[in-house]
Amino acid sequence: MKISRHRRTVPGAALVCAALLALTACGSGGSDDGDAGGGAKDVKAALAEGGTLKVWAWEPTLKQVVKDFEAKYPKVKVQLVNSGTGDDQYKALQNAVQAGSGVPDVAQIEYFALSQFALGKSVAKLDGYGAENLKKLYSPGPWNSVDINGSVYALPMDSGPMALFYNKKVFDKYGISVPATWDAYLDAARKLHKADPKAYIASDVGDAGLTTSMIWQAGGHPYRVDGTKVGVDFGDAGTARYTGVWQKLVSEHLLAPVKGWTDQWYKGLGDGTIATLPAGAWMPANFTSGVASASGDWRAAPLPQWAEGEHASAENGGSSLALMQAGKEKDLAYGFLEYANKDAGVRTRIDGGAFPATTADLDSREFQDRAFPYFDGQRANRIFARSAKDVRTGWSYLPFQVYANSVFGDTVGKAYVSSTPLSQGLKAWQDASVKYGKEQGFTVGG
Fold first, then answer.
1. Within 10 A of 356 (CB to CB), how many other CB atoms are there?
2. E strands in 285-327
3. CA-CA-CA-CA torsion for 87, 88, 89, 95, nearest 10 degrees?
4. By three-state DSSP, how is residue 168 classified?
5. Which pLDDT value is given to residue 283?
6. At 35, is the secondary structure helix, strand, or coil?
7. Nearby residues of 406 by Cβ (< 8 Å), 6 or more positions away
8. Cβ(225)–Cβ(219) under 8 Å?
9. How many domains does the chain have?
10. Predicted model pTM
């Protein structure tokens, strides 16, 4: 079972309207400001009256949530539709919005893509339901992603605070200590590859989600967003921190040239030739299902720091549930959002392997004391929960991040297969993003 994470490559730019003047036309129906309206009394009445909801989502634990929700509210029928993961669903959503028909009431939208839908008014503001008062219920990273320009456009469903997963068996074999800093990680990469030329500290052939998460953790702020005014600048100090280490890993051929989520990648994780994986806290379920042969070999550790003594992390992946502006059952749909992302559905999803965005669950003794058989009984949630608290604040994604990620391979990706420096690849990515943003009618600066 693969829990939601970042999509790495996305074809085309179907999610953004062609010009700034057309942005408000991307949405359909509803009030001019995109507010869902309603209120607690309306939601309660809608749940009692019943009706049919259409929910588009790919996250597997929602299947049980839907069953439990229908049992609690027997007059409500939920049609859970998997119209494709991430990229495919987003294209289907935008096509339905533009056609003015077939739009679901609720949609799963990853954090990096949400602002794109919010700016186009395809998703409704939840302020009318008092969602803005729920901030303290969620960890900072996910909440920052759903609170856009002072309004709440979705409720966090899960989160991806980062950790370093490492093969303890391989580390012990070669006398490698768990690195506390990225400089120490670089040293470990050199030591491992020297001891076994077939072994690599990690695999990376260029991944937009990992790159932005690493820059985020390093304190970088390459994106600045104020409505339709956007800044893109990969020349900041945080980005330089990242490239300073990662360029050496690339130049010294210390990274396995293996694409993630392929059979070769899973094999490398299983046989020890890929020794670590910096990723979100959703990863354990994927180890269990995809790398079963290495059960007991792997552990989780805090993400290495860019400077000794720091305690900083970042998010990598995660999704929200949003109300589509063109949906016809907003009060009923908001009731489902709260059930799934705030109330009993959260526990159901955790039991199914999801990683929560709710602070009460992250802080609970039951959650933190859970032993992971795959990690030889390690209480890994303690590491993940601490990471969630250490996520740096102030990060923004572009309102056309889906498009930007789709051209990552053609820009930054070249640095992994040629002599092009990472810094130059990032500059090319910046230029491509700026060009595209201007073409879409955004006011874009460097």
1. 27
2. 298-301, 319-323
3. 110
4. helix
5. 94
6. strand
7. 9, 10, 11, 12, 13
8. no
9. 2
10. 0.88
Instruction: Say yes or no: 126 and 275 in one domain.
Output: no
Binned at pLDDT 50, 70 and 90, residue 29 comes out as very low
Cα-based angle 120, 81, 210 (whole degrees, multiple of 5) = 60
Residues 39 and 106 in one domain: yes
What is the rounded distance in angstroms from the CA atom of residue 125 to the CA atom of residue 382? 34
Give residue 311's identity as a one-letter amino acid code. H
Residue 98 lies in a domain: yes
Judge contact between 185 and 381, C-beta under 8 A.
Answer: no
| Residue position matching structure tokens 């930054």 | 412
Give the separation between CA 75 and CA 443, rounded to whole angstroms.
48
Average pLDDT over residues 107-112: 95
**Using 50, 70 and 90 to split pLDDT, how confident is the model at 28?**
very low
Band of pLDDT at residue 81, cut at 50, 70 and 90: very high
User: What DSSP string describes 54-86?
Assistant: EEE---TTHHHHHHHHHHHSTTEEEEEE---ST
At which residue do the structure tokens 């994470």 appear? 5
pLDDT beyond 70 at 98? yes
In a domain, 30, yes or no: yes
Residue 314 burial (CB < 10 Å; 0-12/13-18/19+)?
A: buried
Whether residue 374 is contained in a domain is answered as no
Q: Identify the CATH number of the domain in which residue 328 sits.
A: 3.40.190.10
Residue 208 is assigned to a structural domain of this protein: yes
- pLDDT 10s digits, 376-411: 999 999 999 999 999 999 899 999 998 999 999 999
Same domain for 336 and 406, yes or no, is no
Residue span of the structural domain in which 154 resides? 20-159+319-363
Are 253 and 286 contained in the same domain? yes
pLDDT tens digits, one per residue of 221-272: 999 998 889 999 999 999 999 999 999 999 999 999 999 999 999 999 999 9
